[in-house]
Amino acid sequence: MNLNPKQEEAKNKIDWPLLIIAGAGSWKTATLTARVEYMISEKNINPENILMVTFTNKAAGEMKERVAKTLNTNPPRNLFASRNFPSIGTFHSIWIFMLKTFLDPNNNSLDKNYYEEICEHLSLRKDFVIYDETDKLSVLKWIIKEDLQLDIKEFPPRQIAFYISNAKNALVSAKQYEKEIDSQIKEVVWKVYTKYEEKLRQNNAMDFDDILIKTLSLLKIPKVLEYFQEKWKYLMIDEYQDTNASQYQIVKLLASKYRNLAVVGDDSQSIYSWRWADMRNIINFKRDYPDALIVKLEQNYRSTKNIILAANAVIKNNQSWIKKELWTDNRQWNKITYIEAPDDKLEAKIICDIISDKFLKENSNYIDNLILYRTNAQSRKIEEALMMANIPYRVIWGQKFYDRKEIKDILAYLKSIFNPDDIIAVKRIINTPTRKIWPKSIQILDQYRENFGLNYFQIMENAEEIEELKPAAKKAIIAFYEIYKELIEQSKKVVVADLIKLILEKTWYFEYLTEWLSKEEKEAKQDNIDELINVASEYNGMEPRESLSTFLEEVALITDMDTKDERADYVTLMTIHTSKWLEQKRVFLTGLEESIFPSFRSVSDNLALEEERRLLYVAMTRAKEELYISRALERFNFWDYVRNPVSRFFKEIPVEFIENYDIKFKTPNPFGGAFWWNNLDLWVGFWERKVSIKKPKTNNNVSDFARWDKVSHPKFGSWIIISLNWELAEIAFAWKGIKKMNIKIAPVRKV
């Protein structure tokens, strides 16, 4: 490709510190590849003296392929085979290569005594192992429970792991951590941290955090540092805004002799502070290297003018940033489309309508669409709308809502309560949470079920009489049966949303689910469970068993449809954080409301708020041609309808770049049920299998009701509708107070 003047400048500056500010869509990879070719072919630099480091295996692989093609050769299998080829890899792969090089007793540059000294210095030997997260948690659990004799419920291993990882990324050793003790939890962390390091040393192991720390420690040895400084005289570091403290120090040491360091990044796309990335590394580059040249790649080759100008307007509101102005020669194209939907269900429905229209009328592919959201829990309404519209989709780096363990487990409880003969559901929950009902006991129950034609719960009711069961098994089974019996009785008294809450309470499911999880992971699981309760709450206007039945029917239909389409052409769904390395023709950015985007956790912290704004900038610049921004005037959240103001970030986009989406209702009752139940004969999948969706037993015509109408409810008696917003009614009952109901499916009638 032909480089533009700024790319040429970045390519040609080789022999001193260089900061390349690479704006979104500025073709930085092509620039770096051209730079390597120039260094080798024009400057006669030995390829083996070049090091290129990036964050993802995908990016490293792409760089290898491009460089190999440019040099008319094949990329090496690994770093040890990089003869006459630059060393290209991720931070972790490069650092492991460095450690293995000097933990090899056959290294000709070391004498035996020096090798032993390095092993002692690193507390590692040849053939070390790397513990993944599961290994790490197993070791920590053993230390907490067995070595320290502590309760793992009070001190969950995953929580302790978070503290230790945080300390390691801040380059705080176990010994140094002792000075930071100011609470009981930190004292426990210090004790666990100390013993954890001992066990790693005993097992000749390290975790992922140790890879960086031990590499930094290795480079503190003068002979080792000199070796790598001579090996890699020219360094290029990609995504420099995402480096942490240890990565920063390693790069600084490697570049300290020859100072031929080129770092590439964009402070406006720094969105990973929660993974210990420090944006100050790129902002302060000029302070570290006063003679550094700064080259700004501001020409965008990806997006339209409207998208770029709007993104510029948003990011300028941050105080901490390197001034830059993206521009493009691409055409103006359409304005950004703003969708202001009455509620979150319609928000999802409108997005699906747009995708369907583009597919049918413009010969567009599903793969052209990317749907972004701030948190994983937001995907549920969108997924359901896509399924009901028969649009294939894929959730990237996250599970589909109804495939998540916590959702499947709770649904299994509901199914077994509704239908005790559902063997699959019962087998899923019988030992979830763990009750010490082991496979042997379940096998005995299976034999009785097959021999006597009973279901599990009929057998469990008489567990005391089953001679084949051991006393401990009988006790566990009877305890489980008592929980089940209470839940089935409650299912006759409370609606399905309240039944889910009872399941969580009676089984201690959430405590079991999150025992080893960090605070952030717990919140994600809680969000998913809350979202399921939100779905179930839509049936609060029905009788209890009817609400359970209808809810399970709809969920079963959705999940059944979800398993049908296996084509390559699909809509992509993901969080904004996982979209950073992507671009797409058409992008839908959803939920642009206060407390969602920006997150409610960030609004009181200016630094966090600026990172949220950078997150929006990243989301906007994923779009190549069309960008849709949506919000819901009313969102069903935490078992009630809430109204969040429009995001402050949306107000920062100049109005000349925005056009409003004209919402045209297809039925008189667009809120909720009308869209979902308007056409009861749906064609599902690509096998043209006709499916009849069963209506709820109550199916009121909302247009028959008005404010101040008197209505009758079989449970709450008769009184007045005091407000009516589409299908959502508030009814003031004489003896029961004000109740909020979905008037379409609530068992009410006019009197």
Give the structure's gist in a few sentences.
The chain has 28 helices and 23 strands.
Can you describe what's shown?
It is a single chain. By secondary structure, the protein is an alpha/beta fold. It has five domains: 5-106 and 214-299, P-loop containing nucleotide triphosphate hydrolases (Rossmann fold), CATH 3.40.50; 129-203, Arc Repressor Mutant, subunit A; 336-392 and 565-660, P-loop containing nucleotide triphosphate hydrolases (Rossmann fold, 3-Layer(aba) Sandwich), CATH 3.40.50.300; 403-541, PCRA, domain 4, CATH 1.10.486.10; 702-750, Thrombin, subunit H (Beta Barrel), CATH 2.40.10. The chain has 28 helices and 23 strands. Strands 9, 10, 11, 12, 13, 14, 15 and 16 form an eight-stranded mixed sheet that branches.
Short descriptors:
751 residues; alpha/beta; Rossmann fold; Arc Repressor Mutant, subunit A; eight-stranded mixed β-sheet; 28 helices; 23 strands; globular
Question: How would you name the CATH homologous superfamily of the largest domain?
Answer: P-loop containing nucleotide triphosphate hydrolases
Radius of gyration: 30 Å
Briefly note the structural class of the backbone. alpha/beta
Strand content: 15-25%
- Which architecture name of the largest domain does CATH use? 3-Layer(aba) Sandwich
**Mean pLDDT score:** 85
Instruction: Look up the CATH topology of the largest domain.
Output: Rossmann fold
